[in-house]
Amino acid sequence: MKRRNILGLAGAGAAGIAAAGAVTVRRRDEPATDPGAALPFYGAHQAGIVTPAQDRLHFVAFDVITRTREDLVSMLEAWTAAAARMTAGRDAGTHGAVGGVPEAPPDDTGEAIGLPASGLTLTIGFGPGLFRDADGRDRFGIADRRPDALAELPRFPGDALDPAISGGDICVQACAHDPQVAVHAIRNLARIGMGVVSVRWSQLGFGRTSSTSAGQPTPRNLFGFKDGTANLKAEEASALDEHLWVHAGDGPDWMTGGSYLVTRKIRMIIETWDRTSLREQEAIVGRTKGDGAPLTGAAEFDEPDLAAAGPDGLPVIATDAHVRLAHPSAHGGARLLRRGYNYVDGSDGLGRLDAGLFFIAYQRDPRRQFIPVQTALARRDALNEYIRHVSSAIFACPPGLPAADDFWGRSLFS
Amino acid sequence: MKRRNILGLAGAGAAGIAAAGAVTVRRRDEPATDPGAALPFYGAHQAGIVTPAQDRLHFVAFDVITRTREDLVSMLEAWTAAAARMTAGRDAGTHGAVGGVPEAPPDDTGEAIGLPASGLTLTIGFGPGLFRDADGRDRFGIADRRPDALAELPRFPGDALDPAISGGDICVQACAHDPQVAVHAIRNLARIGMGVVSVRWSQLGFGRTSSTSAGQPTPRNLFGFKDGTANLKAEEASALDEHLWVHAGDGPDWMTGGSYLVTRKIRMIIETWDRTSLREQEAIVGRTKGDGAPLTGAAEFDEPDLAAAGPDGLPVIATDAHVRLAHPSAHGGARLLRRGYNYVDGSDGLGRLDAGLFFIAYQRDPRRQFIPVQTALARRDALNEYIRHVSSAIFACPPGLPAADDFWGRSLFS
């Protein structure tokens, strides 16, 4: 049953319903879109990577608790069917929240009845532990298929990671313009996976801190600065090919067309930052707060002049400024596709907001991209005084599914 | 400086910018509104009570840490000025995030630059501890002004309250159609209050679980059921007068035109609920899942027939069904204005989503409204197997401010 049939609208086309239904809070300088609409689930690459960043995130990492390969593969098949349905704005299962027999649990949880697809994307990734667990066991007979690029990240200086909210065997990134739709999707996958997987950790996020399309204005992080000005954009086809997608020959065939995902939960020490002067904030970032222009330029997209010196002979952009240390020129041209979200998890019991950035980055090879960039930042970034990395994870996200008879993980497990 | 002036739009009227800027994800059966627009801050009653429920919540409870009445009053004056500015879509302070002198911290944190007012409302309330603290001290010389209706709630059967996320001396409810706008507002109030107040706890919420206007469809909670069908609505003028607003003579004059606020964080045991049959779920609630109709009726707004018996002679709506126990007829006609939000706080470390309902209810007198209703529910409600009340608080929300020379708490402190 379609999610909407319950409300008696079975005759109307999904697109028509969505168009009538929904748009989202957007900046007034952002082009009109239809955030209620459904996005395609099938394609050469997974959705949710170069898809223009939606407003809300529910990210989940699962531990696999079954020891049986067949159970795991069956669940991935069931997940794929449910994901295809939910991203189209339908119920997770064919009987919906009120169908089937009254004596059985519903096969959808119901809280999204009447809500449009809301641009939902679901993106899956496999963690290193799926290939060989912490005890070295090859639980599912796939240890020899682990890409070399999919290794646990090194420990970076200053890391304050909580293992309970780090790692995971499988992740799903749900993005949508309505948080109830994103939460509904993750919850139904968890329900379908009962006995096979268990939620290890999950994270809600809001507001885009990275724009992934040239049509989107650069949003602001909770430091109040524009974040992601130099991000890879969906329109840069040759750069995506070079920096984002895994090529044939990069590693095992099953990852060709996929991408590696690194997540970092970066707590911001909001109250200390808010007591810092504007001049100091701008020196730390290397950009102005209002326009986001580099301190050597006048407009946001001006290229930072890292060689420029001021009247005092010192660099205009400080040697420990964030924009300098993260700049591709410092890392052999390495770039990332960032897709992070702001988060607020309440307060921390010490009178401070528990808030920051849930950093998400996709890339062709973390050994040449995230790891060297983060190594440089962790050593020297002036921002480090105001942030703590509290969770970390890495996943291999396989390519997209070309057609409806395929399923998440088929290329890995067959 | 206006929040938007930074982007060079000082010449455009706020309403025009907002209208160009924003609408929100809404159900397709919901009338079009303009969620980017600013709502009035001044009025006989505080905004954020009968205001049609916005999509997002950031609720905060503060401990007052100063011992000085003058510091507290000064902060309330500064808060009021900032609240009036922010609800109009402006910066928290007159110099904004990039104004003033570069050597000083900005007087706005900047993350809402470029975002419209987004229907932001800020609603303040005073807790019992402001009048007399846990040690019995009258810190601010107002102990004799505490309304009798503002007393700590009794312990209800089954309560599993965490003191760290309960109570508080002052609360602020921020509601908006954009979470970044709601979070920005609370953060700036906390910043302004530094040294006077400290964040005790805060809660994010999304999706409306109660409609407060006849023009809004009834939303669904995370059990998948419509929630708040029988809620007080903004259009019911005489019922609001009877059940919502404090009358002259009800207690101290400073609360006339105000309302009492009860919050309860209600964790839902999602995974257990999702394994329950549809028939059982509907029997527990007393309504159908699809339409929200009472089990004795055909449509959502049909009045439940609590006397109806089935062919087996048993009541159609069970004696422990939620709709029966919460029905006004069981409590001398008592009704509440509910304004709750769904929440997901990640997972709980045991593989379960940490999710549920952040219940918010406004009323004229909790002794005749929330307390008897919750007493009946806590004793017998069949839903109790699937929920845990983990936080609780009560606040006295004073009347609205009639004009710009007034401030939050003036009637209490003068």
From TrEMBL, chains A, B:
SUPFAM superfamilies assigned: Dimeric alpha+beta barrel
Chief location: other
EC assignment: 1.11.1.-
Localization of this protein: Cell envelope
Membrane-spanning segments: none
Entry note: cofactor: Binds 1 heme b (iron(II)-protoporphyrin IX) group non-covalently per subunit.
GO CC annotation terms, alphabetical: cell envelope; cytosol
A Pfam family this chain is assigned to: Dyp_perox_C
Enzyme class: oxidoreductase
BP GO terms, sorted: iron import into cell
Cofactor: heme b
The entry's keywords: Heme, Iron, Metal-binding, Oxidoreductase, Peroxidase, Signal
GO MF annotations, alphabetized: heme binding; metal ion binding; peroxidase activity
Domain Dyp-type peroxidase C-terminal, chain residue ranges per copy: 218-400
Residue span, Dyp-type peroxidase N-terminal domain: 46-206
Function: Involved in the recovery of exogenous heme iron. Extracts iron from heme while preserving the protoporphyrin ring intact.
PANTHER family registered for this protein in UniProt: DEFERROCHELATASE (PTHR30521:SF4), DEFERROCHELATASE/PEROXIDASE (PTHR30521)
Entry's family note: Belongs to the DyP-type peroxidase family.
Protein name: Deferrochelatase
Species annotation: Catenuloplanes indicus
